[in-house]
Amino acid sequence: MTNEINHANPAALHSVPYHVGIIMDGNGRWAQARGRPRLAGHQAGVDNIRRILEASVRYGIKVLTIYAFSTENWQRPMDEVMGLMQLLSLTIKRQLNELHKNGVQIRHSGRMAGINPDLQAQIRHALEVTQHNDRIILNVAFNYGGRAEILDAVRQVIADGIPPDSLTEELFSRYLYTCDLPDADLIIRTGGEWRLSNFLIWQAAYAEYYTTPTYWPDFDEEELYKALLEYNARERRFGRVLQQT
Ligand code: FPP
């Protein structure tokens, strides 16, 4: 029984990552494997966010950043792009109250420009309503690109007239969309690829990386537990040498 996963016992984990980023890949393949349209996979993907959010609260994760729509995703077929926009809109309509009641603080990382003004208003409303919640932060990376984020930050640093000598990593971090959030500790990618795909490229500089072939809609609490176990087995050195005994 020693190898049995005991996901009912979060205490078995000696360290829990504070900030987890998830690249939710494999929705399309999940749908294709069932002979269903890609959007059915994205809908199943949305349903799974709820499940993993609840599990994250149980494990003590404090910030969950999910990659929901990248700046590159605009190049997908128009019906898929519109479908993803609609899904976010419907999800906010249907789930905001419940998320708020459960103490979830919603954040947005990404460019507002380019998003339909009605959806922008819905996003702003969700951020405002939940801003004082503190059970977990659900940071939705939507119309997000890591390079665009760095570029936007550089532009603002220049616009603010920050003298080059006083610009530190810490100050620069505050200009990113993630602003006061700490760096990511663990990046999980579902769907089997080994790529960061322009996700949290500044914030994940020292994150541990975990990938699984499981498609996002099938990534359940047990899969999350496996990722956390793997994280526990890693030795985080942040570029240093561990002290010799
Ligand atoms: C990748 O699957 C996933 C995405 C493009 C984004 C993930 C989106 C969701 C979970 C739904 C939208 C979320 C919100 C909050 C509205 P893929 O299509 O690349 O899958 P594939 O690699 O199998 O084709």
Model description:
- With 245 residues, the chain is an alpha/beta fold.
- It has one domain (16-234): 3-Layer(aba) Sandwich (Undecaprenyl pyrophosphate synthetase), CATH 3.40.1180.10.
- Helix content is 40%, strand content 15%.
- The protein has a six-stranded parallel sheet with strand order 3-4-2-1-5-6, with helices on both faces.
- Helix 2 (38-59) packs parallel to helix 3 and helix 3 (78-101) runs parallel beside helix 4 (117-130).
- The longest helix has 24 residues, at 78-101.
- It is globular, with a radius of gyration of 18 Å.
- It starts with 18 loop residues before the first strand and ends in a 12-residue tail after the last helix.
- The mean pLDDT is 94.
- Farnesyl diphosphate binds at residues 24-29, 42, 45-46, 68, 73, 84, 87-88, 91, 140, 191, 216.
